[in-house]
């Protein structure tokens, strides 16, 4: 029975690597997969691609706000049987697009694997992630670690000057760098810890 999956994590946890490996496993068995990636910051490109830090990559369809993903997948499925849909950067989905993917699962009986971030650099849920957390059949956390060795659950954005950004747009494309941290170190970097909160604190 097909399901809607949401694999969520912070930055640099290996989500894209997992997606590409899973798609390869299907294709190795003669099955057809359909890959999507967000096109929100690929305005000048006609063809999308998914790439991982370890060098794996694959062409992918792009999705943007307003796209009807159910209609696109159903049309593709009619011309060539689709055994699984993989979607990277799922945090950029709209609320309605998540429901469209759910209909792909429920009406076309095609499993849909979504991979993306749970929260932004300010600790707020992305719209797509919020809806996936609410209606996905299975939630799977992809773990990475903070500089202290604890599980990283948050992310900070470093601007071109190397300083941590504490405000700004949820999505910023450019030379910004993202660093995954545990909740404790995220609060410290975001300036949310008062001096009195550190009394008696001995953590790293």
Write up what this structure looks like.
With 204 residues, this protein is α/β, with parallel strands linked by helices. It has a domain at 4-143: P-loop containing nucleotide triphosphate hydrolases (Rossmann fold), CATH 3.40.50.300. Helices cover 27% and strands 24% of the residues. It is built from 5 helices and 10 strands. The protein has helices at 15-28, 69-79, 95-108, 127-135, 183-189; strands at 4-9, 33-38, 48-51, 57-63, 84-87, 112-117, 138-141, 154-158, 164-165, 177-181. The strands form 2 sheets. The chain has a 7-stranded mixed sheet with strand order 3-4-2-5-6-1-7, with helices on both faces. A 3-stranded antiparallel sheet has the order 9-8-10. Strand 8 and strand 9 (164-165) form a beta hairpin. Helix 3 (95-108) packs parallel to helix 4. The longest helix has 14 residues, at 15-28. It starts with a strand and ends in a 15-residue tail after the last helix. The model has no long low-confidence stretch (mean pLDDT 87).
Overview features:
204 residues; alpha/beta; Rossmann fold; seven-stranded mixed sheet; three-stranded antiparallel sheet; 5 helices; 27% helix; 24% strand
CATH superfamily membership of the domain at 4-143? P-loop containing nucleotide triphosphate hydrolases
CATH topology of the domain at 4-143: Rossmann fold
* Main CATH class of the domain at 4-143: Alpha Beta
Q: Low-confidence segments, ≥5 residues, pLDDT <50?
A: none
List the helices and strands and how they pair.
Layout: E1 4-9, H1 15-28, E2 33-38, E3 48-51, E4 57-63, H2 69-79, E5 84-87, H3 95-108, E6 112-117, H4 127-135, E7 138-141, E8 154-158, E9 164-165, E10 177-181, H5 183-189
Parallel strand pairs: 1-6, 1-7, 2-4, 2-5, 5-6
Antiparallel strand pairs: 3-4, 8-9, 8-10
Helix pairs in contact: 2-3, 3-4
């Amino acid at each position: 029975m097909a399901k809607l999956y949401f694999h969520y994590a912070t930055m640099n946890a290996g989500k894209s690597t997992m997606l590409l490996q899973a798609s390869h496993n299907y294709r190795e068995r003669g099955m057809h997969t359909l890959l999507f990636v967000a096109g929100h910051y690929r305005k000048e490109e006609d063809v999308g691609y998914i790439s991982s830090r370890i060098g794996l990559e694959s062409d992918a369809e792009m999705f943007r706000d307003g796209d009807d993903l159910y209609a696109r997948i159903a049309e593709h499925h009619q011309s060539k049987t689709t055994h699984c849909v993989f979607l990277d950067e799922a945090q950029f989905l709209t609320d309605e697009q998540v429901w469209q993917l759910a209909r792909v699962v429920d009406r076309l009986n095609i499993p849909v694997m979504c991979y993306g971030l749970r929260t932004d650099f300010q600790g707020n849920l992305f719209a797509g992630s919020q809806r996936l957390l609410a209606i996905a059949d299975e939630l799977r956390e992809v773990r990475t670690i903070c500089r202290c060795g604890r599980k990283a659950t948050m992310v900070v954005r470093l601007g071109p000057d190397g300083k941590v950004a504490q405000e700004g747009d949820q999505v910023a494309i450019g030379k910004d760098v993202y660093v995954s941290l545990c909740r404790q170190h995220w609060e410290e970097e975001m300036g949310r810890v008062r001096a009195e909160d550190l009394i008696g604190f001995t953590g790293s």
